[in-house]
């Protein structure tokens, strides 16, 4: 096995592992005497105190502690969860709630509780991404909840599957910030959060569905990828999220699983100000990028070169991809640009270094700004960078890429790093969003992709594959391309 020269020496890996010693409680659960607690090493610490109205919601989902009205099957279609059935009437949808569900604080799931959660999400600032461009209201009607949108929306059930629209007990909303501790409905109850360092969950024996096999979960947030991999090597962790490509080669290959992800590594270019306000200069940057060399060099072949924003995790995308009309490339003329990215995903700083060389070779002067995501996101969204490298999930929220495209490229999108404001793009995104599900919607989505690519506001480079580490004793951990599931009720330690 070839070990790349850039890998840290094994002694450094051992040192990283030592840093984790004592972080996980491990062992048998003394209270129940049944099985072992699952020790989980996660990549990113909470950004917003585990508020479900932020990206932290996906942690709550991956721990099986917070649930939504519906969930998605493997094909992205909606199926029952806290709601058992639903019916559409124009812009309104009626959801029938499941009987016998209690929150972790002992209160019952009611229509009023559901309305409370959805109303808080709809009124949040900023809104959860899944509600970008959506005016949503909820009203209780006996054991049913009526969800109404300002215009007919064929994706309401899929939207309500987003972890950012998890249903929590009333106690979660009593303060200024939403606090999910002891307020979910899942098979595990969140019992303790230690800032950005760790969290603990216990099995909830009052769960409405299949009881959890494991007595609990001990979570440690480990942004350093080498340390996460070392935790798997040393036995300090049972499940390790997002093993860096650079570490995969030195791990026991039987302990890692590689899953193609609906996640695209994209270079966002600032269309509002600076060098890339000029479409010809954006085109010059696009032409300067050699994505294949990045896949081979940084990702060691464990990724796919991008033909568009949507990759092989959506097999229909390649078949329906539209031709793209782009501006002719101009001359960089020594323009100075600031290129930003973050350290939380171990490969991104290396991608930034490779892009710096490629862009400099094309005639740009490139300054790098690399920080932890929590310290750089606000600047990226405010347009403080000329270019920004982001690893972006393309169907994270609804199982449908239209929401991601709107969030990132609509004039009023909440995640518009490129600061793009283009009437043709807005028109294509609006059409995709209102088209009923099925082939027609997929075609509209690909037309919207072509409109975005035509602006060169975003240059897709590669589609990632996630590498998850599961220790030999782990049974039935989830390997979810959408990053919604990880530890489920069926997961346990042999």
Describe what this molecule looks like in 3D:
The structure is a single chain. 26% of the residues lie in helices and 23% in strands. With 494 residues, the protein is an alpha+beta fold. The strands form four sheets. Strands 1, 8, 9, 10, 11, 12, 13, 14, 15, 16 and 17 form an eleven-stranded mixed beta sheet that branches. Strand 2 and strand 3 form a beta hairpin. Helix 1 packs across helix 5 and helix 13 packs antiparallel against helix 14. The radius of gyration is 23 Å and the shape is globular. 51% of the residues are buried. The N terminus is likely disordered.
Task: Offer a quick outline of the entry.
With 494 residues, the chain is of the alpha+beta class. The chain has helices spanning 10-20, 57-62, 111-123, 156-159, 225-234, 245-248, 279-288, 291-297, 315-320, 347-362, 377-381, 401-409, 423-434, 439-455; strands at 38-42, 70-72, 78-80, 83-89, 92-97, 136-141, 144-149, 188-194, 198-203, 216-221, 239-240, 256-269, 303-305, 336-342, 365-371, 387-393, 458-470, 474-475, 492-493.
């Amino acid at each position: 096995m070839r070990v790349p020269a850039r890998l840290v020496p094994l002694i450094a890996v051992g040192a990283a592992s030592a840093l984790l010693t004592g972080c996980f409680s491990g062992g048998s659960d003394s209270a129940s005497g049944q099985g072992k607690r699952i020790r989980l090493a996660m990549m990113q610490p909470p950004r917003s105190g585990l508020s479900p109205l932020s990206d932290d919601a996906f942690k709550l989902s991956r721990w099986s502690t917070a649930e939504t009205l519906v969930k998605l099957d493997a094909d992205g279609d909606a199926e029952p969860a806290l709601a058992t059935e639903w019916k559409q009437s124009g812009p309104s949808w009626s959801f029938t709630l499941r009987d016998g569900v209690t929150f972790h604080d002992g209160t019952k799931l009611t229509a009023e509780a559901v309305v409370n959660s959805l109303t808080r999400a709809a009124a949040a600032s900023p809104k959860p991404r899944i509600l970008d461009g959506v005016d949503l209201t909820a009203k209780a009607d006996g054991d049913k909840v009526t969800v109404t949108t300002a215009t007919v929306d064929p994706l309401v059930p899929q939207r309500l599957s987003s972890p950012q629209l998890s249903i929590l007990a009333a106690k979660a909303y009593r303060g200024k910030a939403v606090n999910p501790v002891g307020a979910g409905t899942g098979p595990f109850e969140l019992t303790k959060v230690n800032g950005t360092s760790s969290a603990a969950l216990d099995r909830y024996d009052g769960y409405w569905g299949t009881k959890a096999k494991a007595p609990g979960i001990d979570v440690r947030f480990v942004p350093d990828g080498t340390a996460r991999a070392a935790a798997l090597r040393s036995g300090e962790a049972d499940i390790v999220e997002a093993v860096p490509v650079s570490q995969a080669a030195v791990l026991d290959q039987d302990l890692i699983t590689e899953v193609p992800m609906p996640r695209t590594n994209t270079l966002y270019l600032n269309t509002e100000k600076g060098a890339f306000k000029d479409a010809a200069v954006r085109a010059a940057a696009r032409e300067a990028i050699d994505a294949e060399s990045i896949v081979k060099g940084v990702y060691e072949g464990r990724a796919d070169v991008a033909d568009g924003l949507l990759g092989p995790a959506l097999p229909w995308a390649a078949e329906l991809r539209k031709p793209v009309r782009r501006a002719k490339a101009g001359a960089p003329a020594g323009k100075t640009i600031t290129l930003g990215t973050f350290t939380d995903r171990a490969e991104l700083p290396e991608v930034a270094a490779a892009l710096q060389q490629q862009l400099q070779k094309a005639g740009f002067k490139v300054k790098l700004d690399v920080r932890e995501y929590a310290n750089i996101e606000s600047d990226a969204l405010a347009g403080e960078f000329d270019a920004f490298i982001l690893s972006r999930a393309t169907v994270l929220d609804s199982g449908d890429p239209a929401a991601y495209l709107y969030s990132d490229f609509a004039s009023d999108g909440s995640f518009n790093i490129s600061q793009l404001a283009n009437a043709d793009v807005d028109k294509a995104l609006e059409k995709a969003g209102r088209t009923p599900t099925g082939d027609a919607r997929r075609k509209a989505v690909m037309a919207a992709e072509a409109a975005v690519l035509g602006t060169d506001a975003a240059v897709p480079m590669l589609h990632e594959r996630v590498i998850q580490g599961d220790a030999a004793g782990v049974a039935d951990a989830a390997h979810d391309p959408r990053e919604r599931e990880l530890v489920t009720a069926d997961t346990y330690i042999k």
